[in-house]
Amino acid sequence: MPEGDSVWRLSERLQPLVGREIAHSQFRVPQLATVDLSGKEILRVWPHGKHLFWLVGDLVLHTHLRMDGLWRIHQEGTRWSLPAHTARLVVRVSGGIELVGHDLGIVELWPAREFDARMGWLGPDLLADDWDTAGRWAPSGREEALRRVGSEPSRTIGEALLDQRNLAGIGNEYRAEVCFLSGVHPASRVAEVDVAAVVDLTVKLMRANLSSPVRTFTGDQRRGSTTFVFGRAGRPCLRCGAAIAKDTLGGGTSVADPDAGRERIIWSCPRCQPVAG
């Protein structure tokens, strides 16, 4: 499931594109069907939470994987590894490298000067280099994230963590696992939770997973053994043996957030994660 660590790794894979010229592009989304980026230079590629951005000349290319999206890299002229009908964007750069974005949830292109107006709603990125660095006039990303989460004390911690306006990068798997490891039920209110401890643990786990070939929370990379509660409804808790429960909880509330308004599944252990209050 694409979350902040997945998009960070994708951005790292795409760094060799920086400085290359686009030889061919094809947008397979109606609103951009006539756009051609040929001749433009890729100046920067960077992630922010679950979002990926390319600075192409004076334009920003914005993509979001949502649930099923992914990028594949091929040599020009070789057969694609996934069906062509799932391609939403094809970009060929100098050197014969061809990138294909399959099942992308968002594909947008807009002037770079509009970046803040379009994406300023995003909260601090957990994986940003300046997460712990405060500026002279501005708080660190961590401080700002804690302020945003804490500003709604009656909200559930599960909703607050998933809201990309608060902090960018957490998806359903991280939410489920961090809440379990913190002994917190996702439906507990923010006011009843040590928010700083939960956020700090999330950052620690996400950064630890950056160098792991398989995302794991248990330390076991075997298929089906990487999580404590996520996707394990009805199976015994690895700590106490109780059956893992499954329920739903609301998603984000920002209109700009791709997950806004969606109820999302939550997993928890009824013994290890009692609802506070």
Overview of the molecule:
With 277 residues, the chain is an alpha+beta fold. The protein folds into two domains: 4-119, MutM-like, N-terminal (N-terminal domain of MutM-like DNA repair proteins), CATH 3.20.190; 141-268, Orthogonal Bundle (Helicase, Ruva Protein, domain 3), CATH 1.10.8. The chain is built from six helices and ten strands. It has helices at residues 4-14, 115-119, 141-150, 157-162, 172-181, 195-209; strands at 22-27, 42-48, 51-56, 59-64, 70-75, 87-93, 97-102, 106-111, 245-249, 264-268. The strands form three sheets. A four-stranded antiparallel beta sheet has the order 1-6-7-5, with no helix packed on it. Strands 2-3-4-8 form a four-stranded antiparallel beta sheet, covered by helices on one side. The chain has a two-stranded antiparallel sheet with strand order 9-10. The protein is globular. It starts with a helix and ends in a 9-residue tail after the last strand.
Outline, from the CA principal axes?
Answer: globular
- Characterize the biggest β-sheet: 4 strands, antiparallel
Quote the CATH topology of the largest domain. Helicase, Ruva Protein, domain 3
Derived structural class: alpha+beta
User: How many DSSP-defined strands?
Assistant: 10
Terminus-to-terminus distance = 32 Å
Low-confidence stretches: none
GO molecular function: class I DNA-(apurinic or apyrimidinic site) endonuclease activity; damaged DNA binding; oxidized pyrimidine nucleobase lesion DNA N-glycosylase activity; zinc ion binding
Protein name: DNA-(apurinic or apyrimidinic site) lyase
Keywords: DNA damage, DNA repair, DNA-binding, Endonuclease, Glycosidase, Hydrolase, Lyase, Metal-binding, Multifunctional enzyme, Nuclease, Zinc, Zinc-finger
Domain Formamidopyrimidine-DNA glycosylase catalytic: 2-116
